[in-house]
Amino acid sequence: xxxxxxxxxxxxxxxxQPFVAAAVIVHVGWRHEPPALAGISHYLEHVHxxxxxxxxxxxAVTARYGVEIGGxxxxxxxxxxxxxxxxxxxxxxxxxxxxxxxxxxxxxxVAQERQHADAGVSPSDYTxxxxxxxxxxxxxxxxETLESLGTPRSMAAITLDDLKTWQRRYYHWGNSHLVVAxxxxxxxxxxxxxxxxxxxxxxxxxxVRRAHQQRWYYEQRxxxxxxxxxxxxxxxxxxxxxxxxxxxILLGNYAASPAFRSLRRDAPVAYMxxxxxxxxxxxxxxxxxxxxxQTGKETPTWERVVSVLQTMKRRPVSEETLAWAKRVxxxxxxxxxxxxxxxxxxxRAWGQWGRPFRGWQALExxxxxxxxxxxxxxxxxxxxxxxxxLAMVGPSPAPDLAAWLAMLD
Length: 409
Hints:
five-stranded mixed β-sheet, 2 domains, alpha+beta, single chain
């Protein structure tokens, strides 16, 4: 018998996955709205919770099972989802399907709900480091995020008929996905879908792009303590995303990443940095955020950022560093796969809805095949002035951001 330590020890053994999550992802959002109807997607999302054909009070039904249906209106999707115990899943799923595809549109309730949907968005809703990402994305994707929930004029003009028309045009099986994460009976799931009798035909929305005349944005805010920077690099929406995720890890907020060593450990110029992807139907965005450590050192800090990107372009990372990035990718992937609603959010963020999702193991195997030379070639094509969009907020007068972008080539 081995000797026991005096250190108190608790081992928590989780049960087999007891939860199932489901979400209906409708492929329409605020990026599809004409200016006169700005905010209609979010308004209609609220209307769905006001009752449906079979369930006048959805919350009264789902609350019995400790479940709440919820979800956001995003640029190109509106999501309705829930997590339940596995044994309760088929009691809640019909409520979800009915409220999404058969809202009852009670005129009085819809009119009262307008004040809740008419919240609007303002710059004060974002921290400075969130704001620079919003502005860079607006430039890159041709969006106007401040109007994503509508304007007072557009919201006041939206009628009950407008809401019904939006529902009829875009809320149908041909323009939506049901994503389920967890162990469920496939035959019972098909039966529940058929019983929901959702509309099978309708339209697919078109993206409404806003014209932005420049590729950079600067806002001087005297009360901001540190300059905040976000640079986004555009790439084709249908690209294989696994190499982009690996590249994002190499430039991410990890103590072993090359970017961390250069920006925050060895002669640090940043107090924080992060990287990530965003994929919409028209293009994808690789983003790099840098919270600068010092005011008055903006240009030298940008030069350090450029140096990191140029290094990625000019020589491959070591095999040891690549192996580390693949391990982090696998950890992130399996962490999301193990949590049903996280798995659904991962699938939604992955985008590329025109392709079948290959599954967790296939993504792992694909990452294993990526070489250091693959990532060097990707960096060389991605990190260029032609693909870059930059936004910055800080207390100082604006630097020459056009010259900054030119340093990338």
